[in-house]
Structures are given as structure tokens and as C-alpha cells.
Amino acid sequence: MSKRKVVATNRQARFNYEILDTYEAGMVLLGSEVKSVRAGQVQLKDSYADIRGGEMWLESAHISPYQFAEDGGHEPERPRKLLLHRREIDRLIGRIREEGLTLVPTQIYFVNGRAKVELGLGKGKRRHDKRQSIIEKRQKREMERAQSHRR
To answer: Is 106 domain-assigned?
Structure first.
């Protein structure tokens, strides 16, 4: 059984996008980047996945330089190649172009010692959708609070 150790989550992704489908992709990382990711020094706030030349790339994901790396380590916001099967990439290209969707990283985690990123295929929410999400979250919190007072 494989354990999934979540290192970073992108909470803004679920707020800004309605996630329709998720995909798991491997990441091509340098040694110092792996050390930083294991230490949890990752930020996915404004990152997205892009398709260039038939390959998938993770853009704007910030992985802090590893403190003990030689020669300063790595560039924090460099594009990182994502590993997906050709069939999956082709399917994603079709859905992105036809439906106007966006690929947003939702989590970075380790499975059996390998760094993986969960990509959410999402549709951008409008301002009123975001307000509705906030109202629903507030109502849910109030209901849980009322139930806990009853106990």
C-alpha cells in the first residue's frame, strides 16, 4: 500500500476554480529542489500548468532554494517539466482548447518517494460564484457550531 505524504496544497485553486477533473503527474526536479519540497518549502499560489511543444510544464510554482545546496542551488520559479502519458496530454489539450478550461496544481505530495503533483482541470469562477462559496462555507461553519453546542 502506498502512502501519500502531502507537502503543499493550493487552497486558492478550489476557491478560484470549479475543479471538474484531477490528474496525477510526476515532476522532473533537481536534487536541491527535492530537498526543499521534502522540507515543505513550496508555494503553489499563482502557479498553473501549460502545454508547450507537446509537453506539460508547471509554471510559477515557487520552490525555495535549499539552504545547504552547493552553488546556490536552483532557480526558485523555473518552469518544471511534468510527466504524463502522451494520451493524457492529448486529451487535456483537446479539453483545454474546446472548453476553455485551465490546468491548476492543487497539491504536491510524495508517493513511494517520488514527487507528484495533482492537477485540477478547472473552470474559472465568476465573482458571484465566489461569494456563494463564502456564504455556503459560513453557513456550514455555523451549523457545525450549533451542533457542537447541543452536545
So the answer is: yes
Indicate whether 143 belongs to any domain.
Answer: no
DSSP state of 108: E
Q: What is the pLDDT of residues 90-122, one digit of tens each?
A: 999 999 988 889 999 999 999 998 999 999 999
Asked whether residue 135 is domain-assigned, the answer is: no
Q: What are phi and psi of 88, to 5 degrees?
A: -65, -45
Mean pLDDT, 10 residues at a time, the chain of 151 residues: 84 88 94 90 91 92 86 84 95 90 94 94 83 88 88 69
CATH number of the domain residue 46 falls in: 2.40.280.10
Amino acid at 145: R
Task: Kindly give, in sequence order, each residue whose CB lies less than 8 Å from that of residue 128, ignoring residues fewer than 6 positions away.
Answer: none
Local structure of 139: helix, strand or coil: helix
DSSP-assigned letter for residue 15: H
87 burial level (CB within 10 Å; 0-12, 13-18, 19+): exposed
Distance CA 60, CA 47 (A): 5
Cell numbers describing residue 143: 451549523
- Domain residues for 84? 4-125
